[in-house]
Protein: LuxR C-terminal-related transcriptional regulator
Organism: Nonomuraea marmarensis
Amino acid sequence: MTRWAPRNGRGWSGSSKGARRLVFRHPLIGSAVVELSTGEQRRQAHRLLAERLADQPERRAWHLAEAAEGPDEQVAALLDAMARANLLRGDGLAAITQFLRSAELSPADIDRAGRLGEAAYLGSIVNGDLRDAPRLLELARRADRRGESLATAVAGAYHLLNGDGDVDSAHRLMAGAIEMLADPGDAHNKPLIEGLYTLLMVCFFGGRAELWKPFHAAIGRLRPGPPELLDILGKTFSDPARLAPPVLDRLDAVIAGLNQEIIPARISRIGIAGSYVDRLGQCRDGLWRVIDHGRDGGAVTSAIEALFLLGNDAFLVGQWQELEQVVDEGLALCDKHGYRLLAWPGIYLQAMLAAARGQEESATALADQMTRWATPRRARALQCYAWQIRALVALGRGDFEEAYQQSAAISPAGVLASHVPHALWSITDLVEAATRTGRHAEAAAHAAAVSQAGLAVISPRLAMVTSASAAMVAPDEQYARLFETALATAGAERWPFERARLQLIYGERLRRDKATTDARTHLTAALDTFRSLDARPWMARAGTELRATGLSIGQGEPAGMASLTPQQREIAMLAAAGLTNKQIGERLFLSPRTVANHLYQLFPKLGVASRAALRDALTEPPEGEASDR
């Protein structure tokens, strides 16, 4: 019989994928075990050691497991309890080995199936061994002849979703398994709670309101009530426009306690709960801990989720170089471990960045690739990603008809579609496109829907968008006040790209109304932001509008070193001298990521593409200045 045990009672030994053969090592056994030759003598030694370690339950359980002559539910239950305790401590690797050994010792098929299912599920989310899960699942199914194991269903649904993206099959399996439970309302049933987390992700990627009905029904019957995070996540991530406002205080309290969290999956789920309600910024430190944990051999799936969550935040807050770095790392992990579905949020971010920077061919190709994969699998959330990408491409080049068709596919004008959280990220796109194509009734209806939904209470960004949407459809005597309110929203600077887009829209309307001075103020501010982000289509739009005001673009503007802020100038000089980002950060009390972002912004101002060219750019005389040599 294959023996599974932790190295020094804590983790894996060996490096092969999947369920790995482990070597039992224990310093207390020493040479005695080697010298004892018979199986019974070895088992007796383990029993004696178990007696001596009564105050160390985990080590005692392993010795009892080694002393077992065959199936033994009492020892299996001890290992099962140790596995769950390790999960609470964040040690998923030890939990996997304990579930596997517990499965070996389980006399009952249903218990063996459940423990194998839990090991398969944990092996996927902790080790990233998605490709090896089918083997453990097959063993679990053989034991679970009557299909009674919820843990096996959880692992199977997780694999169906993340492997090939089979949304509907995963949904049927998970929802059906929950309905078949003798007591589907037991909130203390750990496999049930984990199954509901899995069902939640299935529903999200399916992107259809009807998929959420079994989830909400299951949450509603939990006794004495659903776990706090599951309840919050089920509202902020399913239908934030309708369900998020009442739980935002509770979410903020959970986020405030992130520094105390040690379980990677829980931290990433808190980040997911905050994603559509603009709270990722408050989760950054926790998400970086999850990433570091994954880099050190910890939970792979949670690390991938954390990388893409940080990428989402980086896009919104204009840290686009960081976005590229975290997305590249996340996609590499997806490729290594076979996470086909989970890769798409990263690809979406790549495409959004390409769209914002005017790389139309690349952005459109990624959107088309996403659509081809998502359509036959009925993964509507991914289709929403693709529609938003195409809308941003169209808006950048001024094709407002195409932008309207794409953004209206996410959520029709005048409606915040039920259980389509992505509708909160496409409000500006839809209202601007409707206005610019003469669909004034549709634009007004959507602005009204946003206002009536009370989105302004969710976050400052959505408050800004709510006021700006009203401004875009307001009559001449009201729009300026509403735009000014939007731009003055507390913390609006945190979302530079979206704010600059609103300044552009405002400046365009001011110019048409002959308010030239005010138009130049807002258009210039928008152009400066777009330049700092290298958002080239938007630079072109803002530049065209500024020229229409009679301002000559490109003349009399600072160039070269004169265009840099004092901090950028200092960073450029240090980088040209050969200092690394870390060394510059230590000298200027900045993080290496902040230094990297400043360098990325100053390169185009100096007309260089790399730090290797900085020295010449910084020593080159101003254009037109005579050389003494």
